[in-house]
């Protein structure tokens, strides 16, 4: 909805909050011992919407809308390729390695597309469409992407926290009244989660 009204800053912030939550949900489910097949399926559906549909909407309204129906079809490729990537991952989850992903995960692809769309006006005009098609290809490719699963910190933690700090500065300087205030909950929650993971990893290392 933010994308539809041209408010790409808030749209990007909400997608990045989704990345924060995506890095937490699996760990929290394991901590609370509430993992289930239903939860895994819901997680995949949420990933398609948050990192497939939402970034594609940003790209469509900011760039591809000028091409009419063709632009709609092009923008629709991103969630389509992302859904294929997720489906392939789900059926091969048992065989997947901790050291690498096969193809770019939709979370990373959606995050990159979001940032490129957000800063589209400050970059050469052709970078966004080129990156769009490259990311689509990489998601369904069999390229080996290094995994961060063995790192004790939540995925994307440092990058997202730094970006959100920058986003707060920009938005509060120019558009305070349009800022999604629930980020006041999201950021402290995520920083606390990172701190908890650090303490937990230190305790595990001492036991060993």
From TrEMBL:
EC numbers, comma separated: 2.7.8.8
InterPro entries named among the record's database cross-references: CDP-diaglyc--ser_O-PTrfase (IPR004533), CDP-OH_P_trans (IPR000462), CDP-OH_PTrfase_TM_dom (IPR043130), CDP_ALCOHOL_P_TRANSF_CS (IPR048254)
Record keywords: Lipid biosynthesis, Lipid metabolism, Membrane, Phospholipid biosynthesis, Phospholipid metabolism, Transferase, Transmembrane, Transmembrane helix
Subcellular location: Endomembrane system; Membrane
UniProt keyword Oxidoreductase, yes or no: no
Top-level taxon in the UniProt lineage: Bacteria
Keyword Transmembrane: yes
Catalytic activity: a CDP-1,2-diacyl-sn-glycerol + L-serine = a 1,2-diacyl-sn-glycero-3-phospho-L-serine + CMP + H(+)
Sequence intervals crossing the membrane: 67-86, 98-119, 125-141, 153-172, 178-199
Membrane topology summary: Multi-pass membrane protein
Chief location bin: membrane
Pfam families, alphabetized: CDP-OH_P_transf
GO terms for MF: CDP-diacylglycerol-serine O-phosphatidyltransferase activity
Official protein name in the record: CDP-diacylglycerol--serine O-phosphatidyltransferase
């Amino acid at each position: 909805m933010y994308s539809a009204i041209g408010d790409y800053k808030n749209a990007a912030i909400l997608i990045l909050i989704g990345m924060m939550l995506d890095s937490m949900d699996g760990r929290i489910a394991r901590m609370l011992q509430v993992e289930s097949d239903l939860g895994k399926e819901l997680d995949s559906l949420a990933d398609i919407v948050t990192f497939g549909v939402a970034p594609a909407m940003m790209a469509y309204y900011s760039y591809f809308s000028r091409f009419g129906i063709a632009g709609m079809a092009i923008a629709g490729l991103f969630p389509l390729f992302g859904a294929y990537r997720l489906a392939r991952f789900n059926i091969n989850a048992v065989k997947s390695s901790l050291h690498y992903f096969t193809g770019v995960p939709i979370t990373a692809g959606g995050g990159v597309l979001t940032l490129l769309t957000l800063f589209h006006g400050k970059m050469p005009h052709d970078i966004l469409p080129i990156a769009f098609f490259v990311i689509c290809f990489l998601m369904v490719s069999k390229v080996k992407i290094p995994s961060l699963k063995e790192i004790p910190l939540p995925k994307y933690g440092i990058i997202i926290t730094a970006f959100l700090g920058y986003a707060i500065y920009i938005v509060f300087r120019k558009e305070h009244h349009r800022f999604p205030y629930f980020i006041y909950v999201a950021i402290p929650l995520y920083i606390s989660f990172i701190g908890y993971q650090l303490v937990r990893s230190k305790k595990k290392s001492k036991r060993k």
